[in-house]
Amino acid sequence: MKIVILAFGKLDQSFYREAAQEYLKRLSRFADITTIELKEETKYNLAKNQQLNTQLCLDKLKAYSSHEVWFLDLSATCLTSDELANEIGKVQNQTTGKMVFVIGPSDGFNRQLIPSHYNKVAFGRLTLPHQLCRIILLEQIYRSFKILGNENYHK
């Protein structure tokens, strides 16, 4: 399976980088994971920043047209770990075997520009720092593969 994480911002703290490396190492037996970091536009007003960042993201997604796209979105449906594993399993076994998870910019996206056919998922109603969100995403992807393989993993 191929998974791309499209994220605004970098992991600039060593403890985030170490956590990401650990989960990427664990995930290497299940999937080929690529992380693409986008530079967030912040110098304009909110609406302009959202428009520019949304367009940058959509432009990057053009290269992944054969992938299932999942936006992390506070207003989306919250999935349990089992439900996320089920979604990943569907992509792995029944469709393309390719996914993109998008972690948006701090100002959010211009929702009117996001195509409605893209999937959305929330990891709760909390606003998380983007770096921590990336670690949680990696952990949940790892947990999903452990669930799909009926392997033990702490709860």
UniProtKB/TrEMBL annotation:
Keywords: Cytoplasm, Methyltransferase, rRNA processing, S-adenosyl-L-methionine, Transferase
Position of the signal peptide: none
One GO term describing the cellular component: cytoplasm
Entry's Gene Ontology molecular function annotations: rRNA (pseudouridine-N3-)-methyltransferase activity
Positions that bind S-adenosyl-L-methionine: L72, G104, F123, G124, R125, L126, T127, L128
Complex formation: Homodimer.
Function statement: Specifically methylates the pseudouridine at position 1915 (m3Psi1915) in 23S rRNA.
Protein name listed in UniProt: Ribosomal RNA large subunit methyltransferase H
Organism ancestry: Bacteria, Bacillati, Mycoplasmatota, Mollicutes, Entomoplasmatales
